[in-house]
Amino acid sequence: MSIADIKKNAEQKMARSIEAFKNELAKIRTGRAHPGILDQVQVDYYGSLVPISQVANVALLDARTISVQPWEKGMGAKIEKAIRESDLGLNPSAQGDLIRVPMPPLTEERRKELTKVVKGAGEDAKVAIRNLRRDANEQAKRLLKDKAITEDEDRRSQDDIQKLTDKVIIEVDKLVQGKEAEIMAV
């Protein structure tokens, strides 16, 4: 393994950490509706649990209402029950085949709690990124110990990995600030 491989590997893993963090942020609901909120809700489909998006069409009716259109007649009640029993605090209502899921407005207190959750998730992402930096630096140290690279190359690789880490942490901070602004917007 060379220094270039170590940097490339670290960069790929950090990019995956950012993607995981973005997925985590998508689960945190704001006052506005978006179909991704229902992604983690599982519904019983002939004995197995599947995401709602695999048994129904999930779309937006307006800024505060999600519509769920089941593909099969008998699935409406199961989907409605799954949404109601999820920990999202949503109260769906059926209108014929269509299920409307209105998004309740957030209270100021709940908004502040959600910003704390976002900050905590941001810190977790930063810790994961710093762990990746540490692993990459340890791999470079191993190469130095095995005399595969010089001390200058080791120092240069540590500087490059630190710059990469700083860049990714700044991106995490921007994502956290953006999500906080979204949550606090009335």
From TrEMBL:
GO terms for molecular function: ribosomal large subunit binding. One of its GO terms (biological process) is cytoplasmic translational termination. Its main location: cytoplasm. It comes from Aquabacterium olei. Responsible for the release of ribosomes from messenger RNA at the termination of protein biosynthesis. May increase the efficiency of translation by recycling ribosomes from one round of translation to another. One of its GO terms (cellular component) is cytosol. This is Ribosome-recycling factor. It comes from the Bacteria. Coiled coil: none annotated. SUPFAM superfamilies: Ribosome recycling factor, RRF (SSF55194).
